[in-house]
Give the backbone structure.
Amino acid sequence: MPNPVPSSAPSQNALPAVSPAQDEDRYHYQVIRRAIEILDRAALPLPLDALAEELGMSPFHLQKTFSQWAGVSPKRFQQYLTLGHAKALIARNHTLLDTTEATGLSSTGRLHDLFVRWEAMTPGEFARKGDGLSISYGWFDTPFGPSLAMATPRGLCAMAFASECSKQAAYDDLASRWPKAGFIHAPEQVRPYVEAAIGGGEMKLHLLGAPFQIKVWEALLAIPSGQVTTYSDIARRIGSPKAVRAVGTAVGRNPVSWLIPCHRVLRKTGALGGYHWGLPVKRALLAYETAQAEDQHI
């Protein structure tokens, strides 16, 4: 199996800057990740000075970091990172998907304006488990930590976040889904897809999955940025209202993080549910999107 992080060119996978703050995104995400851990331990919301001290930063630096990454103040963003934020989203931003256009994902934000077109593999291709398929891959720095991206000649087929697991584990996970495919380390082939995913643009996805999974992922594409839905809503949307458990499994097997937004699916109670690449990442994604949505309405 190929090494997911080739030693010959370890620095060639860094994503080019999309904005003046993009070069610091890896650092910014680590600050957010540490903040989540601190907030989970705290019994009460932390004032700016206290949170800055816990993070080993000056209040000014913390204010600047949050504002650059999220577009809102640390005080406001802290609300989005709390465990109760998911319940608030269910109460305020819950979509039933009944009236959402399913012709593709069109999500507009200050830093994210993307149109997604997708096609699914044929049943025969699925049965062959990738036999004869060439998949290019590369590692990239993103605002949500290191990301592994994979693409076929027909579009992006996988994207994983590896801040909560090892890079090898992320690679093994995605590669195992197409055990007979050939994998080629070719970040230059994948880079345009990642740049579009992070910076905005038109995106082509090649969905590699079983027919039921494809239906679930198609429903996920209909969830607008800044809104959330539930597993039972997805089940109703695809015409299988009793298949909530199977829907949950299919959501968890979503191979294209962020673009196919499984992080926007919560339990009916408002609980976060699971996330294949780690709950801290899910919380950061939801918090980021809420901040962007709020920024648009200021």
In short: The two ends are 50 Å apart (CA to CA).
